[in-house]
Each structure stands twice: as structure tokens, then as C-alpha cells.
Amino acid sequence: MRAQSAADLLRALPRSTDLAPAWYLTGPEDVLKEEVLRALLDRALDPSLRDFNLDQRSAQTLEPEEVEALCGTLPMMSDRRVVVIRDVEAWKRRTRTRAAIVRYLERPQPETLLVLWQGSAEPKPEADLAAKCAVVTCDALSPGDAQAWVRTEAARLGVALPDDVVAHLVQAAGTELAALRGEVQKLSALPEGTPVTLAIAEALVGVRQGETVLDWRDAVLRGDAARASALLEPVLAQSGVSGVRLVSLLGTALLCVRAARARYDDGMRGRGLVEAVFGVFRNTRPFGLGEWRRDAAFFAECAPQWPLPRLRAALQAALRADRLLKETVVSDERGIVLSLSLELAASGRRAA
């Protein structure tokens, strides 16, 4: 069946008149899978009878002879029951159980709604399962969509967040929804009636405006070695930030600048160049960017200072740093990242 995004499903589900008998949730964003599952349960089951008609199992422990009984049991005092099977990627090693599920999907029980949950580590759905299910892709959100999600989550928790706070949360915590949920929960725990200002958000998140990982990245790409060096210590002290994350972030940014430079060398300039880079973002959805429009303009601005030989050398340097950071015997991650940022700044002076 044709795949649809989590956002499309969540918009359409309240208006739908029928539910597919089998659903397949896939993609890297588990928080979106939780929201999709919750919406399916709300649509399919009477809350007062949910405990009687909901069965959740792990694919790792499900035996092939259990499949028919699990999926074929009739609902209790209801029109439908729901079976959720998590971590279906485990069936790569449990082929008999997988074969039993595939047979069931050929003629699914009309009173059963089966939900297959694939773990975030597996990027693509299994073709034989996806062919028999309604597939919902739960991809990482763009920064703009992540801001919209923060507003919705904040409203659900009863806290009003001004636009500058929402933007700062996404810039500081990134677009991973589990991290953003944790930050919104911190703000929702403030005493009732407390206005959430940017200063309060900075204090609770532990990241001040102007000292985010993206500020460090931008300083490196601009060749501002002094600012990049000054930002490195407060950035590395932030929760969830490591040398590997910074180098990975820089590697993604260098690839984006490379895309901008290729179009710059083709003669694109100004707004046309910015729109071309923005189109690359929409097609590839690179992880770890800031607000897409702003980053498209920034990478287009950087393109003239980053000829392809400099970009190739920078990517090789980032790869070396990544390997050093992942060696268990190396502990000076600050020194490795600092050396990388200084090397890239020096390459800018040589290119000039």
C-alpha cells in the first residue's frame, strides 16, 4: 500500500470512515510513532474497554504458533480489538514467525487491527510486510515542523510559549522530539501563571542564546577561529553534546555548503542560489540543520569562500577527527574538535 507521513495520517484519521486492518509504523522518529499509535487506539477502541481489547507483544518473543490465536481472537464487548507488535525488525532472525505474520496478512481478521512497529534503527520497511499494510513513515521533522510540534506539545501540557522561546528550544535541543518533549516538560513544571520568557528558557534548558551548537558551526564555517574556540567549552558542556555530535554536525554542514558551491559554480547567485539550496533540503531532509530558510541563505553566503578543493580537504579532516573521537583510547575530545576548527579556519586563509 502507498505510504503516508505521520502528519498526513494524524490530520486525516479523525475524518476517516474506515480503518485498514493492518498498519506498519516505520522511520527514525519514535515519538511520532507513539502519537500515531495513540491516535489509532483512540479511533479503534472504546476507552472503557481498552484493557480488554488491546494486546501488545514483542516480535522477539512471539512464536509462530501464537500468531493465529493472537490475531484471530474476537474482541470483548466491542467491534474491534488491537494487536501491537513492536520491533518487527527482529523477524529477520525469526523467519518462521515472520512467515506466519505474512500468511495472516493475506487474509487479516476484520475484527482485529494489527499494528507493526519497526524500530528507529531500521530506516526502511520490509517490503513483504509493507505490501500488505497501511504504511506510516515517521521521519525526522524539519526545524519548522519541529517548532510547530513544540507549540502543539506545549498547548497539550497547558503552557504558552512565545515564538522566540520555541525557536530557541529547537535551535538548542535540535529536532529530535524526545529531547524537545523533555524541554517542554521542564517549562510546563513552572509555577502556574509564570510567564515563560527567553531568559527562563535559557536557564532551564542550560543553553544561552548565541551559544548553541549551530552558533559554533556557523563560526567554524565563517573561518572565525576565535569565536569558534570561545564557544567550544560552553557548547560541549551542554546536555547531549559530544565531540562526535559536533563533528557530525559540521560534516553535514560541509556537504550542504558543497551543494551550494556546486550551484554557485554553475552561475547561480542571490535568491536563485538560496532557493536551489532550499530545494536540496526539501529533497534530502538532512539531519541536524537549523531553520531551513535561514540555513539555505547562510550556506549560499558561505559558498564563495569554499571552493571544492577546500571542501574536499575539510571533509577529509572531519572524517579523521570523527575516527579519532571514536577511538576508545582517546579522551581529549575538546582538543580534537578545537584542532579541527583551527585547521578549517587556516584552510580558509590559504584559499583566500
Plain-language structure description:
This protein has 3 domains: 4-137, Rossmann fold; 143-205, Helicase, Ruva Protein, domain 3; 213-351, Zinc Finger, Delta Prime, domain 3. The chain is 57% helix and 8% strand. The chain has 17 helices and 6 strands. It has helices spanning 6-12, 30-44, 50-53, 67-72, 95-106, 127-130, 143-156, 163-173, 177-188, 198-205, 213-222, 225-236, 243-265, 270-284, 292-302, 308-325, 333-351; strands spanning 4-5, 22-26, 54-58, 81-86, 112-117, 134-137. A 6-stranded parallel β-sheet has the order 1-6-2-5-4-3. The protein starts with a strand and ends with a helix.
Question: Could you list some keywords that capture this structure?
Answer:
globular; 352 residues; Helicase, Ruva Protein, domain 3; Zinc Finger, Delta Prime, domain 3; alpha/beta; 3 domains; Rossmann fold; 6-stranded parallel β-sheet
Summarize the structure.
This protein is α/β, with parallel strands linked by helices.
Number of domains: 3
- What is the radius of gyration? 24 Å
> What is the architecture of the largest domain at the second tier of CATH?
Up-down Bundle
Give me the strand/helix succession.
EHEHHEHEHEHEHHHHHHHHHHH
CATH class identity of the largest domain: Mainly Alpha
Helix count, per DSSP? 17
Major sheet: arrangement of strands: 1-6-2-5-4-3
- What fraction of the residues are assigned to beta strands by DSSP? 5-15%
